[in-house]
Structures
1.
Amino acid sequence: MKDKIREIEQAALAEIGSSDSDRDSLEALRIKYLGRKGILAELFKKMAELPSAEKPEAGQLLNFFKNNLTKALDEKFSSSSELEKRRGGELDITLPGISERLGSRHPITKTINAICDCFISMGFMVVEGPEIETEHYNFEALNIPLEHPSRDAFDTFYLKTESSRVETGKPANRQTGKLLLRSHTSPVQAHFMENNKPPFSIIVPGRVYRPDATDASHSFMFHQVEGLAVSGKIKFSDLKGVLSVFTKQMFGKDTKMRFRPSFFPFTEPSAEVDISCVLCSGESSLTETGKPANRQTGKQHRCSMCGGKGWLEILGAGMVNPKVFENVGYDPKKVAGFAFGMGVERIAILKYGISDIRMFFENDVRFLRQF
Ligand code: DAH
């Protein structure tokens, strides 16, 4: 029996060694030797019939045989599957891989970061404020009295609850009264000035709300960045310098900037700031004859971005109204400041050439993936 076992083992190992290394041949060999009705099973049966004195040695030999065989088959199998893989049996290396989908920042976040980075480089500090405000901060503190027509421009959503916040040391009307969603970031000017002394320059990014019907250029929620710089001797030319650095950094060094007189209750004088059109660089405001388009009718081609005006409005600005300083307890004779406010979506639309504000809020990854 012992000799027979050894003989069969030699033959089996030789057969495995010389067999084809594909899966099917190896599986056939496994069944032939190690299967339920295989050669080893037969040998174990025969061992049971041996006289008990011979059983232990025969049993040991059979176990060695089984182990050697299993090992030989495993080795052959793993080398063969490696080979198969390399040959392209399981893994076709010519197929494109499954790429990792990396997330990216939302275009609005990117734009806010770019705006803030620019002002941080000029010494501004980033500050935030509450989205739920009292009427006082959204309006009165900014010199927008109850009956003033300009209040309409900053209309907003009111909350049903009245504020119950009354903090000691502050007039009750600043903490109580109707609660609302802020319609601009300008209220943060008042919060900051109440709690800090000049000189300072701050930049305030955040969400704002307006009861506007949604269309390609309006949304009930959007983002603004507010700027405020106050010191003993700030001038309008400082505002101009700071905004000129900003517009060039944001839209390219050849970007031109112009100030148009305007009105905001919280600044005096006030201005609206335009940049030369990012698409036509202001070219389309001239006809072939070199005269401004509005003096000619007919021939001129109209730029889709500026409608042929050559200029795009990007923000409101001005020198802080002395009334605002008084409202926060500053002495308007001792301090001066400039302020500005811009819509982030508007900047992003101009920077990336986006045609519809709703795209920012629809969460369509086909749009978002491009940023
Ligand atoms: N708060 C204004 C708005 O929402 C924007 C603005 C204009 C802010 C002029 C300012 C400013 O700080 O000086 O339309």
2.
Amino acid sequence: LTVSFDGFKALNELTLQIEPGELRCIIGPNGAGKTTMMDVITGKTRPDSGTVRFGPKLNLLALSEPEIAQAGIGRKFQKPTVFERLTVFENLELALAGDKSFLRTLFARRTTAQDTRIYEVLEIIGLARLHQAQAGILAHGQKQWLEIGMLLMQEPELLLVDEPVAGMAPQEIERTAALLQSLAGTHSVVVVEHDMDFVRSIAKRVTVLHEGRVLAEGDMDQVQKDPRVIEVYLGG
Ligand code: ADP
Ligand code: MG
């Protein structure tokens, strides 16, 4: 994939492959192209050249942003966007809607399967006891988990998560690690994160991006020992 902005190559012949059920961490200095890569996968940015495939057949470049989400790719941005005035439960309920109307969803009768899914997701994200709480009173970490839960309502196959632990307390970071690890296997999970201790705690395979391409890839120990990685990212 190549993406240029006014002649500057944010992605420069990037090649990356994620296996089904894999948990992959992507690291790299600011400006390396991490967010641009997620923008291309989700259809927000169109590349100058290259291909993006989801599974063996699906060509994501032929799909619109909503079609890509529908195909099973969920993205969590850094800043939580939960509805503060609604309860935890209602936030998950709304997320069932996808692109359907907000009000229609709140007043529509839920099916048993939908109820079951909401309770399942409440357990997964560890907020079952708080399901009637207003989302506005949740701690920062709990809001982030709720937002991951909202993504899970759509049952995505692939989750893209941008800096999930920024601003979190140590205990919240630990629970986020456990949550993302529990999602791997049944989902593919791609995590962009700067917190190296966090990456070390969850990563099997780490990709280091630099200047729009892959600088190194391997397990955390291999990557941390790589002289090129030390020079551009870990050194100092
Ligand atoms: P990262 O997420 O790794 O920090 P980004 O993907 O955000 O890197 O950015 C890669 C490079 O592309 C940066 O130099 C950034 O300034 C540039 N860039 C990203 N988006 C745009 C845009 N919409 N217009 C112009 N330049 C952009
Ligand atoms: Mg970024």
3.
Amino acid sequence: MTRFARITGTGSCLPPRRLNNDDMVALLAERGVETSDEWIVERTGIRARHFAADGVFTSDLAETACRQALQAANTAPGEIDLIIVATSTPDMVFPSSAAILQHKLGIAGCPAFDVQAVCSGFIYALTVANAMIQTGSARKALVVGAEVFSRILDFNDRTTCVLFGDGAGAVVLEASDTPGILATDIHADGKHADILCVPGHVSGGNILGDPLLKMDGQAVFKLAVGVLEDTALASLAKAGRTAADVDWLIPHQANIRIMQSTAKKLKLSMDKVVVTVHEHGNTSAASIPLALDHAVRSGQVRRGQTLLLEGVGGGFTWGSVLLDF
Ligand code: UT7
């Protein structure tokens, strides 16, 4: 019998400090940097984002999201036998945020590791967890996307700092006789590394290079709209489905215009697209599980529906997961 991996619970966490676009205008004005609510809304769809307080780390946001997901799945932490955290803003250089999270959840012994694929990270993590469940290496996994991107933003660069926010989303993924994840599709092309990167590194106790986010927005935009269509069609083809079978498209929440373009290419109405970018901004690896959890808790996404999750980001990386929820 085919062994599938099914999402049995979702959870999320947004830090309480919420900044709307006017708050960002005021924050940047203190540095002599100009922006406006009109520009941000028109170019991106973003109206607000959340920033974590000092001393709050990726593993803290992840812990809250995981506890919610465990409760929704009616699962005790001790039943978990795999933890994967997708993040580009780990608590520290090492150990992994997943290992730190494991201890915060009161679990010991099961494998726990981070996946680093920037905004595609949750899609990568779900793909790895699915493969480990299908091959029998795990039965119940916590798959998490969690970020504190506010820590790597350059608040003197208006072309990037207004776009990102902090948050976490998590799912419990369990072995099941019924689907479940139907298809996965992940890719990377490192020749585009410099269009979205944080080029600094630690050496000899110092930070060398610039440890703040750099993005060529237009280059990322152009690549994103192409690869998001390709990977969506690839996952659908692998599962023998078409876009008409999709109840909800849950794309990476970076820019409403990219989501509209992808939906149009797939001939899906925007009524079938989960949109949270206006409230969360771009939370990188957290954006897809955050959007999924919000859609589940608001009653948009229901059991039995077919979901197409897709992400794109630094690396350059991209990918999608098609699943029956
Ligand atoms: O998470 C990974 C995936 N990331 C993405 O998907 C991001 C993809 N890229 C984008 O979403 C868009 O390219 C941006 C939202 C980043 C930028 O939108 P755009 O329509 O490509 O704008 P642009 O970079 O062409 O800039 C247009 C103008 C420029 O002024 P000039 O040169 O035309 O006078 C910018 O200086 O807008 C100006 N601008 C701003 N103005 C006010 C850039 N940022 C701002 C700002 N406020 N925050």
